[in-house]
Amino acid sequence: MAWLYAEYIADELLRTGQLIPPGTLEFRAGREALALTVYLSDSTDELSGVGVISQLDEWLSLTAYGHPWEQWVRECFAARAERGDGGPDLELATASWRWLESTELLATDLAGTGVEPGPATRGESPLACGNGDGPGPGPAERADPVDENARVWLPAWQLGLPLGHLSVHLF
Fold first, then answer.
1. Minimal CA–CA distance to 115: which of 89, 137, 142, 97?
2. For 7, how many CA atoms within 13 A lie in the half-sphere containing its CB?
3. Half-sphere exposure of 96 (CA within 13 A, CB side)
4. For position 48, what pLDDT does the model report?
5. Residue burial 12-23, b: 16+ Cβ < 10 Å; e: rest
6. What pTM was computed for the model?
7. Which DSSP category does 91 fall into?
8. CA angle, corner 53, sides to 118 and 1, nearest 5?
9. Which of 22, 24, 110, 132 to pair with 125, CA 20 to 30 A apart?
10. What pLDDT does 129 receive?
11. Would you tell me how many other CB atoms lie within 10 Å of the CB of residue 170?
12. Residue 3 in contact with residue 88, Cβ under 8 Å?
């Protein structure tokens, strides 16, 4: 039930944010990325209504630009496997992660625009699994404006993650 509840929370946050129409691949990418964040950040698998509100800041931190989210997801999966946490929730989360990695979406090319690198590219260590505490990334500084007509194929999580972040922020 923990995975289904995480998906429900992510779906509600995205619908409330009204950033993208439900039913699109972009919406699904945002929902799956946010659901993984919700699921993997909850080490107890017992989210409740009050718990959701208290974890919004953590989810903002985990989905923020510059946070090594992909590495954090991999480390959380490895930690759960090491602890022997399994079952249907972990299987559903793993299937979602496989979809986010293997599905590519056409999006604006933000690479190479002079954006300050995040912690992963500066060699800093990521946040521990299930812990949103710690220093967040600084504000991004752009050397050149983004050419919105330049498009590239990105793994779905790279587009879904900012959508999830904005949805949490707008909530």
1. 142
2. 14
3. 29
4. 52
5. ebbeebebbeee
6. 0.74
7. H
8. 95
9. 110
10. 62
11. 12
12. yes
Block means of pLDDT (10 residues each) for the chain, 171 residues, are 88 89 91 93 62 76 89 92 83 94 84 42 47 45 65 87 89 81
User: Which residue's structure tokens are 């220093």?
Assistant: 135
Q: Is 48 helix (H, G, I), strand (E, B) or coil?
A: coil
What are the strands, taking DSSP E only, across 2-150? 104-108
**Look-up: residue for tokens 């933000």?**
110
pLDDT at 33: 95
| Per-residue buried b or exposed e for 111-146, using 16+ beta carbons within 10 Å of the residue's own CB | eeeebeebbbeeeeebbebbebeeebbeeeeeeeee
Handedness of CA 153, 158, 164, 165 (dihedral sign): negative
Give residue 58's identity as a one-letter amino acid code: E
Provide the pairing of β-strand 104-108 with 151-155. Answer: antiparallel
